[in-house]
Amino acid sequence: MFNNDTIAAISTSYGSGGIGIVRISGEKAFEIAERIFKGKKSIRQVKSHTIHYGKIVDPQDGSIIDEVLLTKMDGPSTFTRENIIEINCHGGIIVLKKVLELVIREGARLAEPGEFTKRAFLNGRIDLTQAEAVIDIINAKTARSSKVALEQLEGKLSVKIKAARDKLVGLIAHIEATLDYPEEDIDKITEMQIYNSLEEIRNMLSDLLSGFDKGKIIKEGIKAVIIGRPNVGKSSLLNQLTGYSRAIVTDIPGTTRDIIEEYINIQGIPVRVIDTAGIRETGDIVEKIGVEKTKKAIESADLIIMMIDAVDGFTQADANVLRFIKGKKIIVLLNKIDLVENEGDTSKFHELKGINELKSIQELEGITIIKTSMKDGRGINDLEKEISRLFIGGEIDTDIEGLMTNVRHASLVEKALNSINDAIIAYHEGMPMDCIVIDIRNAAQYLGEITGETVSDEILNHIFSRFCIGK
Ligand code: GDP
Question: Residues near ligand 1 with C-beta < 6 Å?
Fold first, then answer.
């Protein structure tokens, strides 16, 4: 399964930036560097973990390819635990590629996506959840999600999962000793002890699982759909949230043609906002809620932001739409509030058309209503806070440790939890210990797959292929 040949790749992202790193890892890293690097001293002479100025020269024709800074790092104190050379090039992407080609010509192989990290895992430098955290950091969409990934890289999730697994393994050992050596004078486990341990492990696993939804939201974001009648201010809201004029805002209905999607960052949560303004072409969205596109957008949404025009008030049609989207998380914005009341003066709010019906819906369904103005930005802050409250219960910094963000982890914890539940049922049905222990062993197996203690080659290859090359 494990090639320990020497691999190389460009480890920085492709872009217009001039500086980039070619990384070489493996037995032949120093030897290759020796042949192509001309500095004050030869690579053999320089100390580990030091940086050296010099030139990359093609040994075949003596041509200079780039001026570089080269770092030499002796294994095992490196990311992959192998010898590593990093060449910091300055000549732009074409030069970077030339250096890489030269390194490959001199005996390295182009690394597969994620192969550096895979080696770090296979050489015992990091466990599998940490390796996956590297992928998450590379793909992280907002600052907060990369923080969760960082925590995972530090191994906080693994600590929790290992603790649960250790308990399971201890329990299995105890049961097996009791079963296998009935004659011996050992501390035999009682059925009550088995039951208590199972309960304890069940709680540990369900705690882990409940963190998953939060972790998933922080990493993948939520899908919010803005609905409302033409001209109510949907595009203006999108602009307010994104902070720049993305959608075209006009007084003429029909100017926004397609459904507009935008990724924005609301208090660290990535939110994919969809403005259904384009639907207006086929008529008034509130009257014709049957429009397929909107229906679909609403069905797959995590959050509906429904905008109501404070001047027109809350109509029967609005009420129908609200009932239609029952069961979803909904925030109602009473927009253009600047046209009906001055800041601070709420007297006119009580005279708004349909306001009583709106209030009764609010009481019935627990929907939050926020008064907003896209003209002066009123209420935008409250909207952001409400989104954060609805999805992650407000502030999350305190309990961010060891959050699960990975679907693979969650499904394995769930399988382990199911096995524990089976064991508990078996216990209640009075099954013998040697039957119960089968379920317990399964649970331990599933948890081991998360950190990589009992993982198959196939799963490994799948995980590491999600990386980009060079990581
Ligand atoms: P959409 O059709 O729902 O996307 O609505 P738009 O965002 O295109 O807004 C329609 C018109 O209403 C534009 O002229 C906006 O400037 C105006 N508008 C939107 N929100 C407000 C608001 O809160 N107050 C005022 N006074 N005008 C607004």
Answer: 228, 230-236, 249-251, 256, 277, 335-336, 338-339, 373-375
